[in-house]
Amino acid sequence: MSTLLDADDPAALVRKASDLPRIGDLAAILANSAHDACDPSKPWFLCPIDLQAVKASGVTFVASLLERVIEEQARGDAGKAEAVRKTMMDALGTDLSEIQPGSDSATRLKELLIERGVWSQYLEVGIGPDAEIFTKTQPMASVGIGAEIGILAASTWNNPEPEIVLAVSSAGKTVGATLGNDVNLRDMEGRSALLLGKAKDNNASSAIGPFIRLFDDTFGIDDVRRAELAMTVEGPEGYTLTGSSNMAKISRDPLDLVQQAIGANHQYPDGFVLFLGTMFAPVEDRDEPGAGFTHKVGDVVRIETPKLGALVNRVTTSDKAPKWEFGVRALVANLARRGLADRI
């Protein structure tokens, strides 16, 4: 995939390959991709990337920006979130969605909030000139449609993050898009932003799929800018949560985020994918009053938008999810055994 996405016109190249032998029926492969019904002797869908770096941009929507600040102020304690939320809204006294990141008005707001004692590192990346770009997980560690997604067993406050994921070539050209679940542990990151790795990068905590839709004359970056993602969480106890993330409300343009991720100071020779962030941050209570939403093992998360399909995964704990064992060394050894190493 990394080689394909580096082609001058990946979509045209795929069309020329339409006469290649079929490896199976789409519906049959999809059915065999379910974590609890997979026959390993038959094909199933993997995450649709291989060697690309997996990057993510954070705090790109006002709703999630405020929730990150609340997590920080509450020190990762879900029970304190509602009181902090009210205090923050009273202190801000303005609609942050009207603020252009890095603008003069954003600078003035920063100075005002510092005077009021409510400035935060999340506000810095939310309305400041520099976006938050971090590594979500390692190449080939993400899971695909039907696989289990993992949260830490010790986490008591977490949520899914439905996002669009851009596919970017090694030259920095955005060539396609797909869906992603940037699973997040709110209690871990809320305790300290330095725990971002523990909050974000765990076994099976990155889901991408079902496919990459390549840019052509029927689908492009403007479709990404207009997309609205719908998400449903169905719990084993009959609980249902619905939400959405409207890309039109993103505070930074998707291509600006790509430019902040790659350039003269930072290269990706195998290309990369970039989670664009989400405006979805559930605050309604699932169990105890004031405790908000958190996952339970067995939750089924469905993220969808008409032009990219649906990404469906079931929640487990990271220690119970299948271990990630197929890394770069395993890939090279596999290709060498099949005499294909020279095709990378």
Structure description:
The chain has 344 residues and is α+β, with helices and mostly antiparallel strands. It has a single domain, classed as Fumarylacetoacetate hydrolase, domain 2, CATH 3.90.850.10. The strands form three sheets. A six-stranded mixed β-sheet has the order 2-1-11-5-6-8, covered by helices on one side. It has a five-stranded mixed β-sheet with strand order 3-13-12-9-10, with no helix packed on it. A two-stranded antiparallel ribbon has the order 4-7. α4 packs across α5. It starts with a helix and ends in a 7-residue tail after the last helix. The model has no long low-confidence stretch (mean pLDDT 90).
What best-fitting shape do the alpha-carbon axes yield? globular
What letter string, H or E per element, gives the SSE order? HHHEHHHHEEEEEEHHEHEEHEEEH
Q: Report the sheet-strand fraction.
A: 15-25%
Q: How many individual helices?
A: 12
Domain Fumarylacetoacetase-like C-terminal: 175-315
GO molecular function, one term: hydrolase activity
Family: Belongs to the FAH family.
Protein name: Fumarylacetoacetate hydrolase family protein
In a few lines, what is going on in this structure?
The protein has twelve helices and 13 strands. With 344 residues, it is α+β, with helices and mostly antiparallel strands.
Helices and strands in order:
Layout: H1 2-5, H2 10-16, H3 26-31, E1 53-58, H4 62-73, H5 81-92, H6 104-116, H7 121-127, E2 132-137, E3 148-151, E4 158-159, E5 162-168, E6 174-182, E7 184-185, H8 186-191, H9 196-200, E8 206-214, H10 221-226, E9 228-234, E10 240-246, H11 254-261, E11 272-275, E12 300-305, E13 309-317, H12 328-337
Parallel strand pairs: 1-11, 3-13
Antiparallel strand pairs: 1-2, 4-7, 5-6, 5-11, 6-8, 9-10, 9-12, 12-13
Helix pairs in contact: 4-5, 4-7
